[in-house]
Amino acid sequence: MRYLPHTEEEIQAMLQEVGVADLEGLFSTIPGDCRRDGDMPLPEPMTEWELNAHMDDLAARTAAAPQYRIFMGAGSYDHFIPSATSYLLSRSELMTAYTPYQPEISQGTLQAIFEYQTFVTRLLGLDVANASMYDGASGLAEALLMAIRVTRRKKVAVSSLINPLYRRVVRTYLEPTGYEIVELPYTAEGRTDFSALAGLDELAGVAVQSPNFLGCIEDLQAVSDTVHADKKTMMIACFSEPLAFGLLKSPGSQGADIACGEGQSFGIPRSFGGPGLGIFATRSKFVRNMPGRLVGQTVDREGRRGFVLTLSTREQHIRRERATSNICSNQGLCATNAIMYLSTLGGSGIRQLARLNRDKAEYLKGALARAGVRIPFGAPTFNEFVAGFPKGFDATWKKLLKKKIVAGLPLAPYYDDMADYYLLCATETCSREDMDLLVKEVTS
To answer: Which residue segments constitute the domains of the chain, with CATH numbers given?
Structure first.
């Protein structure tokens, strides 16, 4: 895109047209105490090569792979991305996140979304998936709102082992509208304590994450049996690491009514926390209450296969009072990225990669345990787990950071009873040498 600055004559003509004397007049309605007084303190301009060097210097201050050995997941995971996926996504036919409103000129985009929906339903074991949502956090919030619509109840229960950032988004969505949120405690083995449900009634939905934020795998079938004792209450299975379902049973096969979460692991770079991919699936009987949009398959007048936007129950398309969500767009580009990644791996590849993640994390967990590091939770894990270090380990953590090792995520800011506990992650990108080095550094 070319940059064509306005001339002084053009600026004066536009100011005259809107009826102000100068550029300051455009901002006269803004109170003075809300405006900056004086020029912006900007640095002097740089040449192109000076700017490149400056940007490289800024980038070097960030602890990012591959320069750093990173053992931190917590909702954003470092996975190998095949070159084929990156190349195909860069093609001009696909490099757009725009909504496909006109099927006659959007068949390629619509088919990609349709194939994405198909992969999601197979992975999660449910009947129907939408065209994606913004991220895992907003997907969980929308799932709880959906449960409230379906059941016409105003109270939900949320596991305290769901990603804390997801729970924060849930509160932002639900609390201003007067809905009640109950947080469920966790047990000594690192799983959600669902015995607390015994004193709760009239629940619209119960949300649980598996693997949960502490890395532990929840017993979703037992959760489903407990939740569905009240036949009206909906079970919502949340996740931040969907690769786990290459190895674990799908949420749908264990009784979940809705499955939702983050799809960043499917070929999307970490990119300083975004963009993400909100994956959302449910049972066919709830499809009319599902947020977002749905691409369907049909035939044209000549009997040829085609794709259309079948369902879009959002306020941009229908009356606001009948809309299920104010989500205005799906993550089209990220969903296309995910389907390319999954297609590249295939079913057997996803299983092999999931097993490799599990095995590497078990290797690191076992090595730490043998070196005297405490592993507090006994529940099985996938590719991350909690480790307890001696008091004052934060000083060691900072020292390791200077050695370009990120030794997990401190859990104290998220759980008051977890000082000196850290969430460690190992994916296929972690070599045995790197893991052995971490064990040596934290125990020396």
So the answer is: 69-82+346-443 (3.90.1150.10), 83-342 (3.40.640.10)
